[in-house]
Design brief:
Blueprint: H1 16-19, H2 32-40, H3 47-60, H4 63-71, H5 74-81, H6 91-108, H7 117-136, H8 146-165, H9 178-188, H10 192-203, H11 223-227, H12 234-255, H13 260-271, H14 283-290, H15 294-315
Helix pairs in contact: 3-4, 5-6, 5-7, 6-7, 8-10, 9-10, 12-15, 13-15, 14-15
């Protein structure tokens, strides 16, 4: 969302049905500080002026009256937005969302209820800001149920209260104790499991899967490098199939190119395991079987393996 804030001129004529969803626009003011100074200079409406504007909007769909109600309360949105700066989101974005909540409040405001717009609008402004924070604070949404939302916006302040009351032995402790979990659950009327889950979510951080390497990082390994599943990558699949083919059909074809004695030596040395699982036959065992020296068996084995490699390369 852009950080430029603006309010549509009150003279703009739009259908009444479209007013509640259009963005608030002020002529470009350059930066957020200029916007805040500008809205603080907009005069507040008296109670009588407020009732008259609200009546004109409800009965006649008078856009000029609605704009006056909105303009005179923009400073309220700025003040409320400051309460949510700790979530690390741009204040300009918080103000934009709060302005939408203010417009919704004006659209629904009934002066006959006997309350000022400022009291009624606070709820709508905060609701829009809450939704914006929950959508944008993390890549993964952290709060979806009513209990989780209550915990999201209250757990940190409660934890700060626990730290303020903690003794020296608890200094530096971040996690809630069992007693503190029970206290939070009781005060907010939520389950202990909800408190534990939300604390775990808030204590985690987002990690970019493929962040840009820093200048001083020669050996940079992003999470995407070790989280990727290579089992179904096309090249890896083809390579696995080729290895399997060579280890079955290829070996069988290559062995067929050897004479019977060479094939027996290679098979006994490399392709068979003894009953006790100690590996293939030794040179001495094969020497006794064929009635030759162990050195001769080694020479036959070396020649056979060389022939096998050539046969496998030709087969591949």
């Amino acid at each position: 969302m852009s950080t430029t804030l603006a309010l549509a001129p009150a003279t703009q004529t739009l259908p009444a049905a479209s007013w509640s969803s259009r963005a608030l626009v002020l002529p470009p003011l350059g930066n957020l500080d200029a916007y805040i100074r500008a809205v603080n200079q907009i005069p507040m409406l008296s109670a009588e002026e407020e009732r008259e504007c609200a009546r004109r909007w409800r009965e006649q769909q008078d856009l000029e009256a609605a704009d006056k109600l909105v303009m005179s309360h923009l400073r309220l949105v700025v003040a409320i937005s400051r309460q949510y700066l700790r979530y690390g989101l741009p204040q300009a974005d918080l103000i934009q969302e709060g302005n939408i909540g203010l417009m919704k409040a004006v659209n629904r405001f009934d002066p006959a209820q006997g309350v000022r717009l400022v009291s009624y609008a606070v709820h709508w402004i905060k609701a829009e800001i809450h939704e914006f924070i929950l959508r944008n604070w993390r890549m993964v949404k952290v709060a979806t149920t009513k209990a989780q939302r209550k915990l999201f916006f209250n757990l940190r302040s409660l934890k700060r209260g626990f730290k303020a009351d903690a003794d020296d032995d608890a200094v530096g402790r971040e996690r809630l104790t069992e007693a503190e979990i029970d206290t939070v659950a009781r005060e907010l009327n939520v389950r202990r499991e909800d408190v534990i889950e939300m604390e775990a979510r808030l204590s985690g951080t987002d990690v970019a899967l493929d962040p840009l390497p820093q200048d001083d990082q020669e050996d940079h390994h992003a999470p995407i490098a070790y989280l990727a599943d290579q089992r179904h990558e096309p090249t890896a699949v083809l390579e696995a199939r080729e290895r399997e083919r060579l280890s079955s059909e290829g070996i069988e074809h290559a062995l067929a190119q050897l004479d019977e004695r060479s094939r027996r030596i290679v098979t006994a040395r490399w392709l068979q395991v003894k009953d006790d699982g100690s590996g293939g036959a030794t040179l001495q065992e094969l020497a006794e079987e064929f009635g030759v020296s162990a050195e001769r068996i080694r020479q036959i084995e070396a020649a056979a393996l060389k022939k096998l490699r050539k046969a496998l390369q030709a087969y591949a």
